Amino acid sequence: MTKIRLTKEFSFEAAHLLEGYDGACREIHGHSYRLFVTVRGVPVCDGRNPKLGMVMDFGQLKRIVGEEVVQRLDHAFVMHRTPAGEAFAEALGTRFERIVCVDYQPTCENMLADFAARIAPRLPEGVELYALRLHETATSYAEWVADDNN
């Protein structure tokens, strides 16, 4: 049984605030994120299955990641849910709709851990989340790899 990895690329635009950070990124700023999702599995070998030869349908992967990540964060402002953050989010909410408060500092690293926890349980039986790569810029990215997290 040959295991195969599939990767699909996604993109979304989002702004975030790194509350308490001591560098230039302490200011509200945004990114054109590029997310690469890699899954691993054995291609279907049952000739009666319409997915014969596939690890999974790319359309199904697109739907899962779209629902769990892209639709949730595209053109949103992401911030850490803290007492100060919640007051700020409430004030912004009088004017803007797409404010997403998360239970972590919304760094590239923490976002990947969140994405992994959202995507992995939705994958079909026999398909595992293998890796995630999230680019904040053309030259900066973070990676989550399943083997590092078992």
What do these coordinates show?
The protein has helices at residues 58-73, 83-93, 108-119; strands spanning 4-16, 29-41, 76-80, 99-102, 128-135, 141-145. The protein has 150 residues and is α/β, with parallel strands linked by helices. It has a single domain, classed as Tetrahydropterin Synthase, Chain A (2-Layer Sandwich). Strands 4-3-1-2-5-6 form a 6-stranded mixed beta sheet, sandwiched between helices. The radius of gyration is 18 Å and the shape is elongated.
Write out key terms for the chains shown.
6-stranded mixed beta sheet; 150 residues; alpha/beta; Tetrahydropterin Synthase, Chain A; 3 helices; single chain
User: How is the biggest beta sheet arranged?
Assistant: 6 strands, mixed
**Architecture, according to CATH?**
2-Layer Sandwich
- Work out the helicity level: 25-40%
Q: Measured on Cα atoms, how large is the radius of gyration?
A: 18 Å
Residues in β-strands, percent:
25-35%
Q: Please tally the helical runs, counting DSSP H or I stretches of 4 or more residues.
A: 3
Pfam families: PTPS
InterPro entries: 6-PTP_synth/QueD (IPR007115), 6-PTP_synth/QueD_sf (IPR038418)
Protein name: 6-carboxy-5,6,7,8-tetrahydropterin synthase
Pathway: Purine metabolism; 7-cyano-7-deazaguanine biosynthesis
